[in-house]
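re: the backbone from monday

yeah here it is again, tokenized this time
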């Protein structure tokens, strides 16, 4: 060890340090409290608006409406695809159709993916990848359903397909354990995880949601396909299409649970998808949205497709024994002109 420089001061000893007076201590504590209070107030101002460095905005309401303008009277407005019942004596553990089969049949009944995706489009596929769970738990969208939608988008001529969601648990684990990362990557789709720099403040001007950080990957696209999973939710009672837009938000999303029905309606007003493909291949019947017990899920081997996110939720909630009249956000969505709770009034095709 080299010796200290000659002009270095000797180390202070306890005798060299003056003991502060009681008044000095109080003054210092007061100054520290003021600094901490200012910091807390600043942090609260940011986070109360959602977080991620929110800036005040006076912009008009921003709506992302990806729905088609023209009305197609030749095809179904609401498609339900189910695996056919097994014949007597068939003891195979496998269903009579795969998730890909059912997705294709449902979308074909709607007129085919070419009706919704044009050549050269950048298409965002929005599954539910919120939880650190495997497909058997039915907490996230089934990876085979996501893969089928990606294939159809590429087949229709999409230039680029992006899979993204704002996870509740650690995104890396959610995307991997769900099986969606591997399935999407194998088909050439881009997989985008939520990172702070991918959020920007937008003015939703909803009844609950005003300024909020939005996952830009999910809104900067030519077309958006909503691919939720049908399942129980302990607060909303049921979650699928409309509730799936929570993955668009950054910041403290748990604050929205205080008024969850209005929050869901606000989000569905902001995000109006090109197409909805609901995964009901395996459905979480209770203890949602996260689940974790295999016995809480049930195989239903069903896929639902529509452009009406209110209608698919009104139908889907019946799969877990819920009634549409009990879901306040459905009535709000219908009142706002987002769709109809009477899915039977649409042109329905079961395949």
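seq for it, each position gets an aa:
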């Amino acid at each position: 060890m080299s010796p200290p420089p000659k002009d270095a001061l000797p180390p202070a000893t306890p005798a060299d340090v003056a003991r502060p007076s009681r008044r000095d201590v109080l003054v210092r504590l007061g100054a520290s409290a003021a600094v901490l209070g200012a910091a807390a107030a600043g942090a609260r101002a940011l986070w109360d608006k959602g977080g991620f460095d929110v800036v005040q905005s006076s912009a008009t309401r921003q709506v992302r409406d990806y729905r088609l303008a023209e009305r197609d009277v030749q095809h179904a407005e609401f498609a339900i695809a189910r695996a056919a019942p097994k014949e007597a004596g068939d003891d195979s553990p496998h269903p009579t159709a795969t998730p890909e089969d059912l997705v294709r049949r449902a979308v074909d009944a709607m007129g085919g993916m070419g009706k919704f995706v044009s050549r050269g489009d950048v298409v965002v596929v929005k599954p539910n990848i919120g939880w650190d769970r495997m497909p058997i738990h039915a907490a996230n969208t089934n990876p085979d359903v996501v893969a089928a939608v990606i294939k159809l988008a590429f087949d229709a001529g999409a230039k680029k397909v992006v899979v993204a969601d704002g996870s509740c648990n650690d995104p890396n684990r959610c995307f991997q354990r769900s099986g969606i990362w591997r399935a999407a990557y194998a088909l050439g789709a881009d997989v985008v995880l939520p990172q702070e720099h991918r959020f920007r403040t937008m003015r939703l001007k909803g009844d609950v949601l005003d300024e909020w950080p939005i996952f830009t990957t999910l809104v900067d696209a030519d077309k958006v396909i909503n691919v939720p999973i049908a399942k129980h939710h302990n607060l909303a009672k049921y979650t699928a299409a409309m509730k799936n837009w929570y993955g668009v938000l950054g910041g403290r999303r748990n604050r929205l649970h205080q008024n969850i029905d209005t929050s869901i309606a606000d989000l569905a007003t902001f995000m109006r998808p090109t197409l909805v493909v609901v995964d009901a291949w395996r459905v979480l019947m209770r203890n949602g949205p996260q689940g974790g017990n295999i016995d809480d899920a049930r195989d239903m081997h069903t896929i639902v497709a529509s452009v009406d996110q209110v209608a698919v939720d009104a139908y889907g909630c019946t799969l877990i024994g819920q009634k549409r009249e009990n879901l306040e956000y459905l009535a709000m969505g219908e009142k706002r002109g987002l769709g109809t709770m009477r899915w039977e009034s649409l042109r329905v095709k079961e395949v």
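The CA atoms of residues 53 and 215 lie 14 Å apart. The radius of gyration is 26 Å.
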